[in-house]
């Protein structure tokens, strides 16, 4: 029986991964660590499992007498308004957190890390393959997140090369869906919460920037398959996301079509907001054959809207 540590397990993606881990019958202890900076305890409300232990702690300072068979590091904010406000804390959660977690890994165990498409910066090629080194700015306003993710990737792959540590690094593209914080600050959640509250839908810039939005149900299915279910030892990096590229203004207009009282307004662009995002999924199709982002964004947005309506905002 395995002992598993999930760092950031109260977060948007982390809590969905916790749900999937609880389905396993080969785990006798699941420790979920979260400092509740951006995570919310309510995200674990559906879990009632005697094997699960929640510890409120920074990932950098968490200690345990247990060495874990599997460790999953999701302890970092992913939204610019959050990580730009506390950049040093963001870097620490990623980098110092990863160093601490490596010390808690059982010999022969595996550490999984959710990296990000942000490591590609503002890409000049599209779609972006894992071999693309990116067009990045290591001193820019997004660097606390982008560069700390890149640093952890470097750390894990060096541990893999030099020490034989088993690692699995996934680069997630834009993920949305239920359990996103209403004040998350990213496009889909912003648009939905603004529309539900009857406020204007705000777009930063002209809305021509594109993203590849993947619904959380599809993304967590890929994480489950890659991290443990399919039995692959491929260390990564592995792109996971939706390869359907959609402009920000298209999403805003789609949401506004269901909330016509909310006008779309344009605000000054955010500094160094990437112009495009689209994963090259060639490698993903090899490692996770048959996996696709099956939920179209139109359906996913409506599912997310209903969740926000019922769980976060006063019911209409």
Discrete helix count: 9
Q: What portion of residues belong to β-strands? A: 15-25%
- Using the coordinates above, name the CATH class of the largest domain: Alpha Beta
The low-confidence parts are none
**CATH fold category name of the largest domain:** Rossmann fold
Shape: globular
Mean pLDDT: 95
Give the topology, please.
Layout: E1 2-7, H1 12-22, E2 27-34, E3 52-56, E4 68-73, H2 80-85, H3 87-103, E5 105-116, H4 143-163, E6 166-172, E7 175-176, H5 187-196, E8 201-204, E9 210-211, E10 214-215, H6 216-229, E11 238-240, E12 246-247, H7 248-258, E13 264-267, H8 282-287, H9 297-312
Parallel strand pairs: 1-2, 1-4, 2-3, 4-5, 5-6, 6-11, 7-10, 8-13
Antiparallel strand pairs: 9-12
Helix pairs in contact: 1-6, 3-4, 5-7, 5-9
Model description:
It comes from Devosia neptuniae. The protein is an alpha/beta fold. It is built from nine helices and 13 strands. The protein has helices spanning 12-22, 80-85, 87-103, 143-163, 187-196, 216-229, 248-258, 282-287, 297-312; strands at 2-7, 27-34, 52-56, 68-73, 105-116, 166-172, 175-176, 201-204, 210-211, 214-215, 238-240, 246-247, 264-267. Helix 4 links the parallel strand 5 and strand 6. The chain is globular, with a radius of gyration of 19 Å.
Write out key terms for the chains shown.
35% helix, globular, two-stranded parallel sheet, 316 residues, 7-stranded parallel beta sheet, 13 strands, 20% strand, UDP-galactose 4-epimerase, domain 1, alpha/beta, Rossmann fold
Describe what is shown at a glance.
The chain is α/β, with parallel strands linked by helices and 316 residues long. It is built from nine helices and 13 strands. The model has no long low-confidence stretch (mean pLDDT 95).
């Amino acid at each position: 029986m395995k002992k598993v540590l999930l760092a950031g397990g109260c977060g948007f993606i982390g809590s969905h991964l916790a749900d999937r881990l609880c389905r396993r019958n080969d785990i006798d202890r699941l420790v979920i660590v979260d400092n509740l900076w951006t995570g919310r305890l309510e995200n674990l409300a559906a879990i009632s499992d005697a094997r699960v232990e929640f510890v409120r702690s920074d990932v950098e300072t968490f200690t345990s007498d247990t060495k874990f068979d599997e460790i999953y590091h999701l302890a970092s904010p992913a939204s610019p308004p959050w990580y730009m406000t506390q950049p040093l804390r963001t870097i620490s959660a990623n980098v110092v957190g990863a160093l601490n977690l490596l010390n808690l890994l059982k010999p022969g165990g595996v550490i999984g890390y959710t990296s990000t498409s942000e490591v590609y910066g503002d890409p000049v090629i599209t779609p972006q393959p894992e071999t693309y080194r990116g067009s990045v700015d290591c001193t820019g306003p997004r660097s606390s997140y982008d560069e700390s993710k890149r640093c952890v990737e470097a750390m894990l792959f060096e541990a893999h090369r030099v020490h034989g540590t088993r690692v699995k690094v996934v680069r997630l593209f834009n993920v949305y869906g239920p359990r996103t914080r209403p004040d998350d600050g990213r496009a889909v959640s912003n648009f939905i919460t603004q529309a539900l509250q009857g406020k204007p839908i705000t777009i930063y810039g002209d809305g021509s920037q594109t993203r590849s939005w993947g619904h959380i149900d599809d993304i967590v299915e890929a994480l489950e398959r890659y991290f443990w279910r399919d039995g692959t030892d491929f260390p990564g990096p592995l792109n996971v996301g939706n390869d359907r590229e959609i402009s920000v203004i298209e999403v805003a207009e789609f949401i506004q079509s269901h909330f016509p009282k909310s006008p779309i307004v344009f605000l000054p662009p955010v500094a160094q907001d990437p112009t495009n995002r689209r994963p090259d999924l060639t490698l993903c199709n090899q490692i996770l054959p048959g996996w696709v982002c099956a939920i179209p964004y139109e359906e996913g947005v409506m599912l997310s809207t209903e969740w926000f309506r019922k769980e976060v905002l006063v019911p209409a």
